[in-house]
């Protein structure tokens, strides 16, 4: 019985290995053109590593992390199908994402190298082109099936987005950040209607945003920050109803904010800071973007007052209104409705009046910048509030702001800047001289009684 069980177990094991061998032998093999092209790309990015000897077998069976195959023809009982390279990711990111590392001499000598991958869906480079110049045009021959084209921190990457890039009609992600890529966005950009993310930050782009960007209805992220873009925001920008993040900061955009922006109902982050918008105020229609979490308008001479729109923007956790030229009082409604607010910058404006007592209610607030305004009166915060915000409570540059003498010592321990505020003056009780009226008349008695009441009232106050 024991021998019979052992034979049964052995039979199962042998059957399992035979089945695995059949499956392994039936797997399709990567064609030699793509196999060789992968080796050439790896060698050009890092020739210090012997890629061919480390990975001598079929790369669809054994390949470096970041080299991913996929079926182009599904297998059947009689046909193992066919495979090809579908993802190539280069540049070591982390231990959890150990793509093949690049070295400082990384380059791409053959501009048509990537045309060998007709079914490529994703191409990713992180910190690869750092010393030797590599042209973005080397990638313009990628197929129309490409879905993700990502370049992150490649300071030697140069060139421009030529019109040929608009042929990549399947593109969902276009990320070029931290490079020397320049020029204008091509006029056919709006043809890329499958785009969900466009991140072109920290490059050398110029010109304006194409008007036909409004045709990219699936767009969720639009980030063109830190470039040389100029001109107006396209009027049709409000048609991008799927947009969650729009960051146009640190450019030269000008004009007014188009009213169509109120159509961005799903927008969570809006950053228009440090551009050249001027004399248009803070629009009331921002209140219709009810899902906003971050509103950044700093560094634009907008003028006007801070509108009382905060009752409709209760989800906001960050407001940047530094150097926007606003005047008037700080709306107390900010402290009433924005219970999630963690960051508020109102510095370097011309705000007047007192600091709203309602700010004390903002339990999530950990950064409050009110410096360099014309605020006045007593700083209305408790020791608990000052201790929580600490040094990120900035109120210097408001000569008429003051602290009660009894708290100035404890407040200074949490924030040395508060020690420079002047001490609030004590409210003096006015002294009234009693009039000398004869007590012989009834009027005299009434005045004398009234005078006594005034003295008693003053005593108890």
TrEMBL record:
Which Gene3D superfamilies would you find in this protein's record?
Ribonuclease Inhibitor
Q: Where are the membrane-spanning stretches?
A: 7-23
Task: Name the coiled-coil region(s).
Answer: none
Q: Which Pfam families match?
A: LRR_1
Organism superkingdom: Eukaryota
Major place of localization? membrane
Q: How does it sit in the membrane?
A: Single-pass type I membrane protein
Q: Name one GO cellular component term.
A: membrane
Keywords on record: Glycoprotein, Leucine-rich repeat, Membrane, Receptor, Repeat, Signal, Transmembrane, Transmembrane helix
Subcellular location(s) of the protein: Membrane
Q: What is this protein called?
A: Uncharacterized protein
